[in-house]
Amino acid sequence: MLLSTLLITSLLGWIIEMFDHAYGSYMKYAYPADELMPLSCRGRVRGQEPNRGDIDDSLGKKAMTDVRLDNDVVVSVFETNIRVLGGLLGAHVMADLLRQRGGRMQWYRDELLHMAKELGHRLLPAFNTTSGLPYPKVNLRYGVLNPLSRTGTESDTCTACAGTMILEFAALSRLSGDSIFEEHARKALDVLWQRRQKGSDLVGTVINIHNEEWVRRESGVGAGIDSYYEYLMKAYILLGDNVFLDRFNIHYSAIMKYISQPPLLLNVHMHNPTVSVRSWMDSLLAFFPGLQVLRGDLKPAIETHEMLYQVTKQHKFLPEAFTTEFRVHWGQHLLRPEFAESTYYLYKATGDPYYLRVGQSIVEKLNAYARVPCGFAAVQDVRTGTHEDRMDSFFLAEMFKYLYLLFTDKSQLPIDIDDYIFTTEAHLLPVSLSTTQPPCREEDLFTHTCPSMETLFPNNPSFAKTIRDSYKYLTGVGRTFNAPKRVSTVALLFLVSCEWVSGLKPEVRSVVATHFKLYRVKLVAEVSHTAEEDEVMPHVVQLISPPFLGRTVLTAGPAKFGLDLTKQEHGVKGSIVKASPYTACEPIDGAVDLKGHIALALRGECMFVVKARWLQQAGAIGVIFIDHREGSNSQDTPLFQMVGDGDSTKDITLPFVFLFSREGAVLTAALEEHHNVDVLLLPKERQLGHGEWRHQQQEEEADSSQSANSDRGPDASP
């Protein structure tokens, strides 16, 4: 306990020193510019540095000799709201609190609130649309429609851009007494809610601000949508309005049905959510486990967080985007704080010291790989460790705040942290702004939650550990991991999505031409940006021993690796045996019992090829993988083709097929009842009818008898 206390104290001191180094470098080398350029040791002043396009829209050129908000500059409405307006409001709340306590800040006369109100009015012209959805950009001096504004021609905005205004605008209204801000933010949320896809209850990524039509229909919880969901939940906590919670819960059910495939969070088509639209995830979704903690859904939060942690262990930081195989898709790391945020929430919810060790690793990696003499620099590519000359403001606003709070007991804080809600930039707003105070409904904590996570979860570290342990093989721990080979400048931007870990839906990995009942799967070409469609030939598992005699036929999916059953005239026959452990993610127990048999193994916890190698090593002659997702079946779910891990699979020589849960249950029930069950693995088009099976069996018996007689020699007696 003493060592732990000393370590935590040491880490807290380190975090404070890191903040001083980062903030002190900004004040020394960059103030009054918007951002520090940590490699150049100077400030980034808009117009004086090379234009970076939309990235610079987060820079307002607001701080000059004195703070001014009337600059002739086009800014992002979204970024200005969450960074500048939120920062002014959070600072006002803290300044006002200190003033009320006496002693400090007695000179303060709400100057920050007045500035916030002025900025709010300068953002309001963006809402001058027929729909109520805001323009994505506004000129702080000239608004949107003024000929001098140099903006107002945009027709689209992202869902998060329009849906991440309610906390700051509602707080501004309630602190200033001017309701216009909250009214506009509510209107924008109403439009997004009304335009959700009613069948799936999902929203798209980009919407037209004039006709309210979706422009990009992919749906996920990462970039473009993320904080829309966050603000629905937090608006309920801050404002006490059940309409926000009701909307969030409906969206959340849809997310968990279509997007969440623990530990993955996929992107799907909002109108056809069983279809995955890409084979990679972006790092912004790392906030979602923290939001799940607020929602009270701890298990998937732990699962996804553990996946993210293993990605950081593999690449030092979360790449800006990474594939479903944990490989780098976009190598940048902008010092984003979302992973630290979720780590903080999970530790406060579980009390598991494991998350303190995760936090320690974040601190150590920042110092080892991002620290430079003039602050901390973003990583241009996690594969090479090269730096980028930027240190975004969210690094100061969020990263150190979450790390400090992670290692600090709330009794040591000058405020009761449960009295506040974090904005998406980690600015604190008081829940006392609520005009209604709904009680915490103890009978239904997982639908209506209070801000305090202690109400939801007792400190139970073993609970989180049990869930995490299911993912210990997630990134191939215990086997060699080979980085993707550089094939060409366009190669490997998309990698073949291997079927792996606990519960990746087959339907989101498949594209089915349903009108023609063709079975297809989308596989990604190794050296091309475009996906290539391969026809998936349905296979079967045919039960051939008595009493089935070929009458029971189960539809199965094939594999891209191992023995090609389409080239085997009579398929592969054998008796089935359950592998132990059933997931086959580690060396097989009782390999003698498995040798010479077809193994049954449960999907999940590790990649198919990992299981395949363990089972092949144990002496199996074939493998039937069974889906662990209860109720899945081949009638409702398109078949998919199992693929490898991106490395060579030439060493895998067994035949493999995949059964959905319902078909798998038929097979395991037959094994439990009859103990000795023979099956035939073969393409569906070659499955044998009952008469054909009896005929083939007789031929094989005759061939066997003839072979035996031949072995005796010409003089052998019958």
Automatic annotation (TrEMBL):
<dbReference type="GO" id="GO:0006986">
    <property type="term" value="P:response to unfolded protein"/>
</dbReference>
<dbReference type="InterPro" id="IPR036026">
    <property type="entry name" value="Seven-hairpin_glycosidases"/>
</dbReference>
<feature type="binding site">
    <location>
        <position position="424"/>
    </location>
    <ligand>
        <name>Ca(2+)</name>
    </ligand>
</feature>
<keyword id="KW-0834">Unfolded protein response</keyword>
<dbReference type="GO" id="GO:0005975">
    <property type="term" value="P:carbohydrate metabolic process"/>
</dbReference>
<feature type="active site" description="Proton donor">
    <location>
        <position position="320"/>
    </location>
</feature>
<dbReference type="Pfam" id="PF01532">
    <property type="entry name" value="Glyco_hydro_47"/>
</dbReference>
<keyword id="KW-0378">Hydrolase</keyword>
<protein>
    <recommendedName>
        <fullName>alpha-1,2-Mannosidase</fullName>
        <ecNumber>3.2.1.-</ecNumber>
    </recommendedName>
</protein>
<keyword id="KW-0106">Calcium</keyword>
<feature type="active site">
    <location>
        <position position="226"/>
    </location>
</feature>
<keyword id="KW-0326">Glycosidase</keyword>
<dbReference type="GO" id="GO:1904380">
    <property type="term" value="P:endoplasmic reticulum mannose trimming"/>
</dbReference>
<dbReference type="InterPro" id="IPR012341">
    <property type="entry name" value="6hp_glycosidase-like_sf"/>
</dbReference>
<feature type="domain" description="PA">
    <location>
        <begin position="572"/>
        <end position="665"/>
    </location>
</feature>
<dbReference type="GO" id="GO:0005509">
    <property type="term" value="F:calcium ion binding"/>
</dbReference>
<dbReference type="InterPro" id="IPR001382">
    <property type="entry name" value="Glyco_hydro_47"/>
</dbReference>
<feature type="active site">
    <location>
        <position position="338"/>
    </location>
</feature>
<dbReference type="GO" id="GO:0044322">
    <property type="term" value="C:endoplasmic reticulum quality control compartment"/>
</dbReference>
<dbReference type="InterPro" id="IPR003137">
    <property type="entry name" value="PA_domain"/>
</dbReference>
<comment type="similarity">
    <text>Belongs to the glycosyl hydrolase 47 family.</text>
</comment>
<keyword id="KW-0256">Endoplasmic reticulum</keyword>
<dbReference type="InterPro" id="IPR046450">
    <property type="entry name" value="PA_dom_sf"/>
</dbReference>
<dbReference type="Pfam" id="PF02225">
    <property type="entry name" value="PA"/>
</dbReference>
<feature type="region of interest" description="Disordered">
    <location>
        <begin position="690"/>
        <end position="718"/>
    </location>
</feature>
<keyword id="KW-0732">Signal</keyword>
<dbReference type="GO" id="GO:0004571">
    <property type="term" value="F:mannosyl-oligosaccharide 1,2-alpha-mannosidase activity"/>
</dbReference>
<dbReference type="InterPro" id="IPR044674">
    <property type="entry name" value="EDEM1/2/3"/>
</dbReference>
<keyword id="KW-0325">Glycoprotein</keyword>
<feature type="signal peptide">
    <location>
        <begin position="1"/>
        <end position="24"/>
    </location>
</feature>
<dbReference type="GO" id="GO:0016020">
    <property type="term" value="C:membrane"/>
</dbReference>
<keyword id="KW-0479">Metal-binding</keyword>
<feature type="active site" description="Proton donor">
    <location>
        <position position="79"/>
    </location>
</feature>
